[in-house]
Recover the amino acids of this structure.
């Protein structure tokens, strides 16, 4: 029995090797595909008409009541009253010592905020030298007292001469930029609180 199985396996092996060398592949011909429709589906352009989808349109509106991932609605109006309410209700989702978030906020601030507010938040950005009214410093007491949520509302909806940045900066990046503003404020406060260096003693007059 075992001998017969070995002989059969030997014949199968010999036939396989013979087929390998006897049936040479033609590189100019494509391989045979099984179930090609699963690989080569028929695409449809987003704005092309459709014969199978509702309304005859390929691009379909989202079902009522659905919310895109990461875009929860903000139930605030672009008013000073709602800015104050946002300061009471919203908190920064990133911790003040989240260094990765601060690093990203540094980049966001440099790209979108420094042009007006200046690299150090003093309101001395480059555009203020070309006739744009300078914004108030982010390091003064009024800015220190603004809650994170209110600052987020200002960046999202704008305020006075500042326009909305909701379409340019994502929600996460807005919060991260606020982290960087808080870092600038802490650094400025630490500089003010630091004791002044001792003055050098007056040198005694040299005898003549």
């Amino acid at each position: 029995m075992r001998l017969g199985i070995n002989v059969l396996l030997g014949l199968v092996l010999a036939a396989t090797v013979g087929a390998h060398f006897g049936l040479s592949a033609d590189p100019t011909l494509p391989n045979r595909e099984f179930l090609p429709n699963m690989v080569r589906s028929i695409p449809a352009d987003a704005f092309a008409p459709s014969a199978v989808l509702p309304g005859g349109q390929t691009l379909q509106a989202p079902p009522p009541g659905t919310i895109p991932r990461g875009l929860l609605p903000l139930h605030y109006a672009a008013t000073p009253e709602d800015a104050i309410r946002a300061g009471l209700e919203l908190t920064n989702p990133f911790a003040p010592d989240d260094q990765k978030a601060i690093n990203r906020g540094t980049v966001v601030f440099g790209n979108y905020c420094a042009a007006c507010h200046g690299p150090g938040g003093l309101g001395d950005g480059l555009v203020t030298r070309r006739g744009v009214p300078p914004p108030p410093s982010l390091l003064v007491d009024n800015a220190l007292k603004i809650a994170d949520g209110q600052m987020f509302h200002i960046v999202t909806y704008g305020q006075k001469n500042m326009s909305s940045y909701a379409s340019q900066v994502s929600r996460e990046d807005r919060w991260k930029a606020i982290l960087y503003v808080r870092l600038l404020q802490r650094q400025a406060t630490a500089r003010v609180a630091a004791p002044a260096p001792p003055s050098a003693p007056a040198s005694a007059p040299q005898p003549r």
